[in-house]
Amino acid sequence: MNDTYPGREPHPPTTQPLHPAVPRPAADPPTPSRISAKPPAGAADALPGDLPVPVTIWHVTDLHDRGAHHTDTITAETARLLVAYYTSGPGDAIVSLGHEPALAGAAGAAGCTYVAVSSPADLADLDHVAGTVRLLVLRWPPQHRQLPPAKTATAELTDLFAACRLLLAHNGYTIVAVTPGDAATDYTAHVRLVVPAARRAGLGWLRHIVAVTPAAATRPAVHAPRETTTPAGVDLLVFVIGDRHR
Fold it and tell me: How far, in Å, CA of 148 to CA of 156, rounded?
């Protein structure tokens, strides 16, 4: 991994209080607790041969407070931040692969349209919103089944990202939530599948967000292997169409 922070594309100021019922534009997002607008000195992420992408740390407080939806990767605070940063407000379309209750709630609070599909094949049924989706969220690895072999996973991911690209607006974002808790397959192994597949489908890697509890924020490296099935952090990989340098 590359440890050179490129010093570009800063996030907007994050000193505003959280008002979940009053959506704010993407330039002035709500702050559920505390967000590092810039990551620790030297933090960046890259695959060999690629330019590094910025790493942003989101300090959220509800990663361990999941209520009835104890398997949710996207918590309420994380969902509100995603909607605030990566949509422009009422009327925007948000799609998720698999139902994300917290994301549905955040979308409704912001006046956005939320659509969930149960499988990658179902994305083809959303041709009526093709080219208009502002935010598309999916999880990796696949839920409720074993991780396929690398060759199969690469082909599946490439097809999935191609379908995502068709749905995205020109200024839309696809965000992959890398599910924590698999000590045998760490973040680095997942990203080496996800990023090249996205590139082949015409999506560029823009940013790596790490949503962590305050207690987990001091872990030594954002790409360290997970050593527990209790999620101390969630890795969110942000992709855009074509050129990532917006």
Answer: 9
